[in-house]
Amino acid sequence: MDLLGPLRVSRDGVEVPLPSVKQRLLLAGLLLRPNEVVGTDELLAVLWSDEPPASATANLRTYVHGLRRALGPSGRERITATAGGYLIRLSPGERDLDRFDAAVARGRASLAAGEPEQAAMHLADALDMWRGAPLSDLPHSPLLARRIRRLVERRLLAEEDHAAARLAAGAAAGVIERLRALVEQHPLRQRAWAHLMTALYHTGDVSGALDAFQQARGALAEQTGLDPGPELVRLRDGILHHRLASGAPGPAIGGPAAGGPATGGPVTGNPAARQRDDRRPAQLPLALPRFIGREPELSRLDHWLDDGTAGPTTVVISAVSGMAGVGKTALALRWAHRVADRFPDGQLYLNLRGYDDVDAVSAAEALRSFLETLGVSDARIPTTTDARIGLYRSLLATRRMLILLDNARDSDQVRPLLPGTGFCAVVITSRDQLNGLIRVEGAKPLTLNVLTEQESRNLLGNWLGAERIDGEPDAVTGIIDAAGRLPLALSIVAARMAAKPTLPLTAFATELRRHEALLDALDDGDVRRVFSWSYRALSEQAAELFRLLGLHPGPDLTAGVAAALSGQTPAAVTAPLRELTRLHLLTEHQPGRYVLHDLLRTYAAELAASGTRDDHRRAAYQRLYDHYLHQAYPAARLLQPQWAPIPPMPQLPDSLATPLAGRQAALDWFAAERRVLVRIVRQAADTGFGTYAWQLAWALTAFLAPHGLWQDQLTVQQIAVASAETAGDLGGQAMANRMLARAALRLNRHDVAERRLECALKLYERIGDLTGQAQTLHSRTELAYEVGKPQDALVYGRQALRLHRLANSAAGEGRTLNAIGYIYATTGEYELAIASCTEALALQEKIDDRNGQAATLDSLGFAHERLGAHEHAVDLYERSIRLFRDSADRYHEAETLVRLGDVRATMGDLAAAGKAWRRATEIYDSLGDPAADDTRSRLARLDGK
């Protein structure tokens, strides 16, 4: 399905006719957001712009029906109706846009690895996929036009990257004609002008290069009233003074290649990058210490690995399937540890939680996790799943890594996480047989059955000792039969028997038989019988705690949370936690953090539903949410003291929540609890505690936003909006809409951000909240600036400033003054910028907003540098750096260090410039941010002078 030109659909190599324009528009709207729900309102906007007819919704259903029929037998499976919209299911690479993104990612990775010829080839392949303007055969509604502009921007960035690669490869003459065509059509792209100037200079046409600068300046002045940016000016100066090294592509200006490719992260093919990366991933959990048997299965995995790695581009995929509790993960981990030394680039591991009803890991989330592990910073991780897939496969293409994907739901969940080529091995565990992977990707199937009789005896002997096993062979046989030779059930039984070494095994066998008829048969994979046997043996206190743990959504919890659920003190739950852990009904998988096997959690939840009174369950839920809220709220205030606080739900009288010791403790707590909190927000909404839900979402955002976890923020704020609406809380609705808009803005969903900000502003106006109105207008300032409307941004900024002053919000006033000043500086209004930022700084110093001061000093340095006041800019940058360092904001410290180095270089103090750039490089390296490549380029050019 092709978007990069007229819309084109083919099946088995034959083009599929779609005669209806509405059907083609509908398909385009779905294809632009594959594998995610596209809302009905959005599709109506694609089909009818802003004036849909009264019958639009019914017509939409008709078009969907016709489109499914046109797509053939798979049409109904591909396009499915969901709550609120429709979804089209696509595999990676089905769209030409996917293939384009993947080729671009390969090109950028090659460019970062110092392989410009290879990069140019990949980028040329990507650009050749364009057959014209995207969806050029369709009418463009405003919404569709915005989406198409983003596609065009991706092509233009790829064009510029292609030129950079050709220049780095020494092929300057070969890019001039293509660059001239690019700047004629898009005369405001300063990076393209820079590449053209550089290419002309390296072909000996110095006057042509300088003339290109004058053309760029004229176009910018005519269409925007702005002068060329400082990078383009520096390039012009370098050409005038013949300071460009032969073959060098010149200074980076904007775009993905500025400061390293958009891909980021280390690339194995680059020896320098390999040398820098001393963080080889080693994510495998510990193998189970009591692992028994499975030698034929381990040998088969060994054989597949040996056969598969003979080829140069082989990815070995093994699919280990079997019933719940049969030991799939234990086998995979045992084998993975056994062969780990054959994978010098490390091991990746992820529990996909495929059978978790609450929180199965999405492809986008899994890819983000792996990309972070591979060294890609939050800022460089693509927002779309398809782009993440391309980047992930590019980074693995030259690595030899072992990847263990545990507890997969089905083939579709796994497929985006498979490497495309290279020397990697992938092991997948699943209750599903994964026939799709076996059929299409050539995965090797390994079905795991229950243990043999002898393996079962060996497992029990490992727990109990050979003497005890050999002394009562008939009882052992009865126990093995009752447990169905299932490793999980046998381990639970063995743990209890080991805890009572003097009790005859016959007594255990008799008790197991007594409960056989109470539950379903084990033949179907149902281990309730063994669970019930162990549960009935618990002390009353441990049994009650086990039931209550079934109310927790997971994935793990602390002793404090267990105490809150039970309404007791942490000391009171120590003994029952120890009892549950000793009997393998609970696992302490990290110090102080406990997890239930998914089968045991389901069983505990069943017990809670049937054996606990409704009012007791509701009270336990409230204690749980109270505990998390009153841990999260003060932690959020520690992280974001300048945020306008919300009035949280009153703390319960017997609450166990205690304030954290400081900012670092708050960061550590949120990092440990983030996944839990996302689930808790959802569960609080589902169980009728909507106010807790939106307030927890507010607190969680204090951690999510600074860490760039925008998809999580989008998720929790969508729940928060619905919860606040159900609760009739206008303030909560306004807050959640504003924070939802912020997440949408960072995910480049500008239309969603605009709608949500409009809604938030109306709600804040309705309740008379001036600070909320000002914050919303500040967000509108950011949105307008992001979409290229600086004058609109200034209007919103001034409105926000007025309201902050009326509300006596000094922190908001200072930050908005700085935002206005920065926008002035980017539009060349340097004196206005300095006046606004100076006012901001005075206010921030008065209220001791140190991080705000750091940002404002950086903005002032930016303005003074462009006015030529270099000494003053240096002083401002150095003050900004000290404050960023004091507030542990290392990323922005590095950014300002880069600018400090730039101005030092302009002043001719190359030693000081090199010192600043080296410090920035060290920080970027410690953060795993690919911007380090840009600072290294600066240092390399410095060494070459």
Keywords summarizing the entry:
single chain; 945 residues; mainly alpha; Arc Repressor Mutant, subunit A; Serine Threonine Protein Phosphatase 5, Tetratricopeptide repeat; Rossmann fold; 5-stranded parallel sheet; 3-stranded antiparallel sheet; 43 helices; transcription; DNA binding; transcription regulation; TPR repeat
Question: How would you briefly describe this protein structure?
Answer:
With 945 residues, the chain is mainly α. The chain is 62% helix and 5% strand. Belongs to the AfsR/DnrI/RedD regulatory family.
CATH homologous superfamily descriptor of the domain at 295-447:
P-loop containing nucleotide triphosphate hydrolases
CATH C-level of the domain at 295-447: Alpha Beta
| Major pleated sheet | 5 strands, parallel
Low-confidence stretches: 251-278, 309-313, 515-526
* Mean pLDDT figure: 84
Helix/strand/pairing category = mainly alpha
The gross shape turns out to be globular
Provide the spatial order of strands within the biggest beta sheet.
7-8-9-6-10
Rg for CA atoms: 31 Å
Q: Please count the helical segments.
A: 43
What percent of residues adopt helix (DSSP H or I)? 55-70%
CATH architecture of the domain at 295-447: 3-Layer(aba) Sandwich
Percentage of residues in DSSP E strands = 5-15%
E-strand count: 13
Q: What is the CATH T-level topology of the domain at 295-447?
A: Rossmann fold
- CA distance, first residue to last residue: 50 Å
GO molecular function, one term: ADP binding
Protein name: BTAD domain-containing putative transcriptional regulator
Keywords: DNA-binding, TPR repeat, Transcription, Transcription regulation
Family: Belongs to the AfsR/DnrI/RedD regulatory family.
